[in-house]
Structures are given as structure tokens and as C-alpha cells.
Here is the input.
Amino acid sequence: MPEIIKITSLEDKDLLPYRITSEVQLLRWNEPQEGIFIAESPKVIRRALDAGYEPLSLLVLDKYVTGQAADIIERTDGIPVYTSDEGTLCAITGFKLTQGVLCAMRRKMTPDPAALIGNAKRIAVLEDIMNQTNVGAVFRSAAALGIDAVLLTRASSDPLYRRCVRVSMGTVFQVPWAYMSEPAPDYVGFLKAQGFKTAAMALRHDTVSISDERVKSEERLAIILGTEGEGLKEQTILSCDYTIKIPMSHGVDSLNVAAASAVAFWELGIRG
Here is the structure.
């Protein structure tokens, strides 16, 4: 039977993970072991459970215990299920629970990037992308459009930060990902050593369209995306096999990185 606990005090120490606003604190929760993260909404939590993440506790609106959270509570039988009214839960979390369910979950050990991409044909590489909304959106596009894995530089936002998870709709649990130890632009050599041709998304005199048949026909391709504004580092671009762009009209020179990733993945991904 589930352990349903009606919240009586906002200061309950067991609710601390839900009160913390610092993602770094959650990341370091169990140091030196892996930390924790918060998954929000039934769909996201189900995807995390399907991917094998370990649930630690649930925070649920009263009305959802026998409603949209019922199957989750059944799947996570044995962990504490904290419940209360909407006002109390908003006071704990600091925001309105539009989906009514939060789950504290244990992180997994980050996989070795070389092993992760061993059989991949198409991968996305995020160079120093810190905006959590963009990271989450890139993962959602990667899941939908034929990308086998995502690699990130260490300066990029953590895919398990709450906003990343929420924006991705839980696809951060479906697309394999890992951090590379090499900083930008040194990681390009690592990608090439793994057998990938590298394509930097940037605007230069030697840029080719994402529809270029040479790029599309590459057996293994790493599509490299940079930050808003500054874009990729110059040395990263120079180190890549291709510099690619999305053809534009009406004088527009570029798209937001999340939108650009969706277009590039559609053109260059392997679906089916």
C-alpha cells in the first residue's frame, strides 16, 4: 500500500528537495554519489520511470491522488507520497503546480561518451548552451527527429535541471546523453576519433546548406550547435569537416538554436 502523508508543516525536512530552488544543491545532494532531480507532471514522471530512474518521494495535489497520479503512485509503491491542497503546495514549491505532481528522483551515473555513441549514426552536440529552455527544446527535437544521442560540453546546462526536463517533455530520459570531458573546441578531435564527420552550424563564406547531399549522405554525422548570440567558437568551426546553414528568406540570418536544431535534425536525421 502507498504511504500517503498529509502535509501538516511546511518545514518538514522531508520536503526540502521540493523547496530548494538551487539546481546545484540538488545535483550535489548525495556527494560524492550521484545527486537528485525533480520531475514535474505525470507524463514526464512516467517517462523517467520507464527509463529506470529511481523515485524517492512524490508531492501530489490531494485531488490527483486518485486521479491523474494514481497509476504513478501504484508504480512507485513504497515511497512517501506527500499531499495537500493547492495553496500549501504552492507555498512549498514557490510556483503553481499546473500538472499537480512532482517526483524527487535519484540521478544515474553519467555514461562514458565514447561508449554512448558507439553505434550512433546521428548525434547532436551542444557547445556551451546554458539556456535551460533551449537545452530542453533541443532534446525534444532530437527525440522526435532521428537523433541517436546528445553530447554536451561541460559549460552547457544540465539536462536534468527542472526547466530542461519540463521543456523537453521528459525526452531527456529517452535520448541518451553524456558530457564530454574535452572543452570547446578540443572535443571536435574526440568526435572525429570516434568516426564522425562534424558539421558546425554557423554562418561563414564557406557555409553549405543543410540539404547538401555530401552532408546528408555521411554515414555518421555530428551536428554541432552553439549558444545564442555568440554561436560556436571560431576554432570549433575551423576544426569541423563542414560548416552548415539553414537557407533563409526575408533578410533573416538565423533562427533561435532550438528552432534551428529542429530544422537541421529533420533534414539530416535518420528516421524510421
